[in-house]
Amino acid sequence: MRVHKNHVAVKGRPAPRGVKVRHVEQPEFLSQAALFDWARMPAVIKSLPGIELLEGSMNGVRLSKAQAGKAKAAGMLKGSHDVRLPVARGRWIGLSIELKYGDNMPSDEQLEIGTMLEREGWRVHYIWEWTDAVKVITEFLSLPRPAITPCS
Questions:
Q1: Which of 1, 23, 43, 59 has the greatest number of C-beta atoms within 10 Å?
Q2: For the segment 4-17, what is each residue's pLDDT rounded down to a tens digit?
Q3: CATH code of the domain containing 88
Q4: Is 17 within a domain?
Q5: Torsions phi, psi of 93, nearest 5?
């Protein structure tokens, strides 16, 4: 079995085959993964049209300096929220969720991104329990779709 100091597994997630890893607790990652496990269930996809566009940010994942440089060069924004749903419902053009854990509070960058998104017509939430995110997403997707004029 190969041992590599840069391989870090998250408790509750399997390690790559043949790689021994250090285990690091990342509760915000686990919450986000649980949310996406729920969102990818066939019954959820069938009952909530639009949820298939739910996407997650990698901002909460610890990266090496080289990986962080590549991510920044590829457009990753500091303070970008963990979860986005780019579908229009009600008076909003999308939903953005920042997941927090325990006593963690949103950073100044996350609050600034949230303010900018709200100015652009997004609904923004800061949530400490992934099950609360399920409720917010479900409520959001139950809102009426606005009339949209196709581009072509």
A1: 59
A2: 344 444 445 555 56
A3: 3.40.1350.10
A4: no
A5: -95, -5
Domain count of the chain? 1
Distance of alpha carbon 54 from alpha carbon 95, whole angstroms: 9
Q: Which domain holds residue 89?
A: 26-142
Indicate whether 102 belongs to any domain: yes
pTM: 0.79
Q: Give the whole-angstrom CA distance, residue 56 versus residue 13.
A: 17
pLDDT tens-digit profile of 31-50? Answer: 999 999 999 999 999 999 99
Q: DSSP per residue over the chain, as a string?
A: -EEEEEEEEETTSPPPTTEEEEEE--HHHHHHHHHHHHHTSHHHHHHSTTGGG-EE-STTS---HHHHHHHHHTTPPTT--SEEE---BTTBSEEEEEE--TT----HHHHHHHHHHHHTTEEEEEESSHHHHHHHHHHHHHSPPPP-----
Q: Assess if residue 149 is contained within a domain.
A: no
